[in-house]
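Hi, here's the filled form for the chain we discussed.

Project: internal
Contact: R.S.
Residues: 319
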Amino acid sequence: MAILKKHFLSDLIMDFIEDVELRHPHSPSTARNYNLYMDRLVEFAGNIPVEQIDHELIRKYRLWLNRLIDNHGHRLKPVTQNYHLIALRGFLKYCSKREIPIYDASKIELAAKERRTSAAYLTLEEVSRLVAAVDIQEKSYLRDRAILNLLFSSGMRVSELCQLNRSDINLKRREFQVLGKGNKNRLVFISPSAAESLHDYLRSRTDTTIPLFLNESRNPIASSDSQKIRDKKGEFRRLTPRSVQRIVSHYAAKAGITKRVSPHTLRHSFATNLLENGADLRSIQTMLGHEDISTTQIYTHMVNPHLRKVHEQFHRDPA
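And the returned structure, exactly as it came back:
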């Protein structure tokens, strides 16, 4: 009688994460996050043979996740619990492809999603104040003004902006492609003022490096020796999403805007501005790179005050 080989969780997780990394070469954070989520499964269940994963173990794992307290003393939100379950689904599908007897991934149901609330957005007047807060005396004036204008004009995610290369930009056509979620390319458009800001910034650059936005506090921009601006892995020191977050928050405070402002706030502002001026949801969905129209529909809640004004201005009761 043949002895069935046991496949232990930790060994297969390592193979699975490597597979994720190969399938998402432009998104290293995906592999890191999946690694974290699967480590949580090992923390809960131990290094068990994967053949022991069944309905009851998954039920107890979901209960464990629901009661888990993170490093900040908070319980995991339903959306975060779902990320763990999505990673587990992916792992089970990976095992199935390798013809390892495993629990059916399609039987794992996700937790009920929290109702999304309207996110903050800036009015045109506030956006103008934000951009105007960039002081011409600052060393990074041209770069920061270009970043703010580009975020509001295109509706890009901050991760998409940080991955842009100089060769991606077409200022004449005022359109270019970005690599969005799921490694999907999409076309974005920018306004004349954003194109002008980018032109001024690029004209000021004396280096020949690839990234569109560099961390100027860590890179000697004036130097033509590109080796001086590489990190230990040999990569150019791009401006990171966290750095862009600090830039946006800095100028929001200078502009006296009391709302919590982030790069994503400018993305919300872009979409809300389009909707207020008559753009349809399907077009906005395409420009934002949303896979599901329900994600875009959050913006209908944002413009409720605008719709009320329209109703009050144009609606008439019968005589």
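Let me know if anything looks off before we file it.
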